[in-house]
Input
Amino acid sequence: MIYEFEGFKPVIHESAFIHKTASVIGNVHIGKDVYVGPGAAIRGDWGEIVIEDGCNVQENCTIHMFPGVSLRLQEGAHIGHGAIIHGAQIGRNCLVGMNSVLMDNVELGEESIVGALSFIKADTIIPPRSLVVGNPGKVIKQVSDEMIAWKTEGTKLYQKLPSQCVNSLRECEPLRVAEPNRAKQQTSYLTWGADRKK
Output
């Protein structure tokens, strides 16, 4: 659902995938290999939103701002399910965890990770490579090379997803009974720390 607003039409790279139940409104620029999931709302009605190459905005995320503000998700930003970005600037290769809220004028430094359910209050500046958790969000340590490599690997899955959706996502009638010998899906990526628990 792509909408023009007061003469502003979204600009969306042809390699991006926007789910048909997502809303992209107004002054929005979406780069290459961007994934926007079902139910996401990207509202460029009051200001400009730039989503750079390789970002993902997952299911039920909201991206918005106060009037006249521009916000940017830099290359490779990973916005987890249900997160809200309101007038915040998201650095390159950051991860914003599920159901987190980043308020106005937050600056999230590059390669930072925000834990799920965190709240970062307005005007907070987070240095690069910070791990932020809690309400209010606090930096608890620096992101290690191992952590950022794990994050980057996960984001690569989302960078491949737009072409997979274009090539294979189809509306269909459901089966009433699972077919015999149904294929198993591959385990290609593990939660943080899962490989060290073995």
Observations:
- The domain at 2-142 is CATH 2.160.10.10 (UDP N-Acetylglucosamine Acyltransferase; domain 1).
